[in-house]
Amino acid sequence: MLSNNDILKKLRVALSLRNDDILEILALVDFKITKGALGDLFRNEDQPGYVEAGDQVLRNFLNGLIIYKRGKLPAPKLNIKDAEEEPGNDNKDE
Questions:
Q1: What does pTM read for this prediction?
Q2: Cα(85)–Cα(44) distance, rounded to whole angstroms?
Q3: Is 80 left (phi over 0), alpha (psi -120 to 50) or beta?
């Protein structure tokens, strides 16, 4: 089974990302990591200083990658009048 580190490594190669690109991607979701800590994630398991990437690191990277590739989606605008008229909405003025 692939570890989170393996997944990050494979995505980095497949998308031709440099460490600076990955730091930028993580910054898009306000996830702070240093260059040194990022380098530790990409070490081989048998190397000193290897750090296992947790689920939070991978999740934030994937969320940041979506924004990096697609851009931020605007927040949906809710029209209050339309919400009041939806079927099953019992917020009627009496």
A1: 0.74
A2: 58
A3: alpha
Cβ neighbours of 65 (radius 10 Å): 19
Q: What 3-state class would DSSP assign to 88?
A: coil
Angle separating helix axes 4-14 and 55-70, nearest 10 degrees: 20
What is the maximum alpha-carbon separation in the chain? 71
User: And the tokens for 22?
Assistant: 């990955």
Torsional class of 24: left (φ above 0), alpha (ψ -120 to 50), beta (otherwise): alpha
32-51 burial string, b = 16+ CB within 10 Å, else e? ebeeeebebbbeeeeeeeee
Condensed to tens digits (0 to 9), the pLDDT of residues 35-92 reads: 999 999 999 999 999 999 999 999 999 999 999 999 887 777 777 766 566 666 555 5
Selection from 34, 25, 46, 63 nearest residue 5 by Cα: 46
